[in-house]
Amino acid sequence: MTSPGGADQSRSARPGWRDRHGRGIRGPVTGPHLPLLRNRVDMFDMTVASTAEYLKDLWPDELADVAFEVAAMPSELGETPAVDRWRVELKNRRVILYRLPIERLSRLHSYDEMHKRMMVESCVFRAVAELLGKDPWDLAPDRFRHL
Question: Fewer CB atoms inside 10 A, N or C side of the chain?
Fold first, then answer.
């Protein structure tokens, strides 16, 4: 772009980003040597994936062909006024976890990262227990022996 005086001015590809006060264009907040910041959705997906992988390692034959999916909300309302946290499709061997009901309708006594992760893990355990017809505590009994 040429200014009225004839000098060239370069513009950033991002609108609203410019060289302010001669300090250069802004860089990423984390810098090149740090990982990018994670958001709530990524943390939820990672928790579901790691818990599902843990359970698949414990029950390889029963969960070999099970698909774990994450959706924002149930697409249809059930017969009860309660909002489902997950859905298990026995015929399709599929477990669908609903992120928003799990995150927003869970009443945690402490709303920190550890308790939010434990809530997501417990929902995965309960959904898999429903799929297998077992009690959630029977899925990984050795995990809690030290308590």
Answer: C
